[in-house]
Write a structure and sequence with these properties.
mainly beta; Methylamine Dehydrogenase, Chain H; 2 domains; 4-stranded antiparallel beta sheet
């Protein structure tokens, strides 16, 4: 009995202490900033996208699913919405596969770094400065992880662009001016000046970076592109030829022969057509009329010639859905053709003069954004603005 009388007060004392501790713990939880809802709502929580009361002036352009695809019937609403400054002549621009980041490169003897911008905010994401001479071309891998650049310094450099780490440096005998990843992401092609033969396209396995093929050409490789299913690759340009090779064997299929040099070449999204930018007429060594030649890729047959440019056609690209071909000449002419029918179609549906000229051109993979660069170092991003 005495023990029971002694134990009872002790039990009460212990229970009281536990209750006090529990009450103290619950008060600490409620007093944390994250749980004081009225204060956080008024001073800290940023309005969610569902809250439409945010001032219009705070909204910045952004790459979202609401962007309108660039189509033939929307070309009259194509406007510049973002501009960047590279610092020197722009020779190449490229979008990441998701369209959120733009890479631009060029330069002469300096300003040869590859710069990357966030498209939505217009802020520089990173500067990749491993080259020490002109950067001629840049390309992103299909998965968006890698960025490759090629330069007059005789190297192709492959970056994990988000971290800035150099994954691989490939060395060549002389300058290299073209680079492209295959659509399936398995290979990467580099084109440029060689020793013997005097130009080549080198194809590497992505990841191991082992050389798979060396495809011979002449003088330099200014024009190069993979077919959509990675079955063939085309390359050439300065020799006035664009060759077609099989990517599984490296065998030459046929040659697309031109009267003058070829600056760029692209393949339509359905793989049926090759468009080459070239010169139609030269006078005293100067191109006095630029042109686009259209070829049937399966057969190598010349289908049409599109002329009427006052100077060399330097850049061209298809829209992602293949409904239009965008062409740019050195004088700043931006012309868009409807591709509905290669024989009776390919009529121009837009023809505008871009101030400062056009030295680089790219369309985002989803077809909602267009990027142009010029010799003054200006980079402009265009989108369809659906005006009320």
């Amino acid at each position: 009995m005495k023990q029971s009388k002694l134990l009872l007060p002790m039990i009460i004392l212990i229970l009281s202490g536990l209750l006090l501790n529990a009450c103290s713990y619950s008060v600490q939880v409620l007093s944390t900033p994250g749980s004081v809802a009225p204060v956080a709502t008024q001073t800290m929580i940023v309005p969610t996208p569902a809250q439409t009361e945010a001032p219009v002036t705070l909204v910045t352009p952004t790459v979202t699913p609401t962007l309108i695809p660039i189509r033939v019937d929307k070309l009259n609403m194509l406007k510049i919405f973002e501009s960047f400054k590279l610092g020197d002549v722009v020779r190449s621009v490229a979008f990441t596969p998701d369209g959120t980041t733009l890479a631009a490169a060029g330069g002469n003897t300096d300003n040869v770094a590859v710069q990357l911008w966030d498209v939505a905010s217009g802020q520089i994401v990173s500067i990749l400065g491993e080259h020490h001479d002109i950067v001629w071309d840049v390309a992103f891998s299909p998965d968006g992880r890698l960025l490759a650049s090629v330069s007059s310094d005789g190297t192709a450099q492959v970056y994990d662009w988000r971290t800035g780490d150099v994954e691989k440096i490939l060395n060549f005998p002389r300058q290299v001016v073209s680079v492209s990843f295959s659509p399936d992401g398995q290979t990467m092609a580099v084109g440029g000046v060689d020793t013997s033969p005097n130009a080549s396209v080198w194809i590497y396995a992505v990841g191991s970076w082992s050389q798979l093929f060396k495809l011979p050409e002449f003088i330099n490789i200014t024009a190069m592109a993979y077919s959509p299913k990675s079955a063939v690759i085309i390359g050439g340009g300065t020799s006035r030829n664009v060759q077609v090779w099989r990517t599984d064997t490296g065998a030459s299929v046929f040659t697309l022969s031109h009267a003058h040099q070829v600056s760029k070449a692209v393949i339509s999204p359905d793989g049926s057509t090759v468009a080459t930018g070239t010169c139609a007429t030269e006078t005293n060594g100067n191109c006095t009329e630029g042109a686009v030649w259209l070829w049937d890729l399966p057969t190598g047959k010349l289908l049409r010639k599109l002329g009427g440019f006052s100077t060399m056609v330097d850049n061209l690209t298809y829209l992602a859905d293949g409904t239009a071909l965008i062409v740019a000449s050195r004088d700043g002419t931006l012309r868009v053709y409807n591709t509905s029918n290669i024989v009776s179609g390919y009529s121009p549906v837009l023809d505008i003069a871009v101030p400062g000229g056009i030295s680089a051109l790219a369309v985002s993979p989803d077809g909602t954004l267009l990027a142009t660069g010029n010799d003054n170092g200006d980079v402009n991003i265009w989108r369809v603005v659906d005006l009320p």
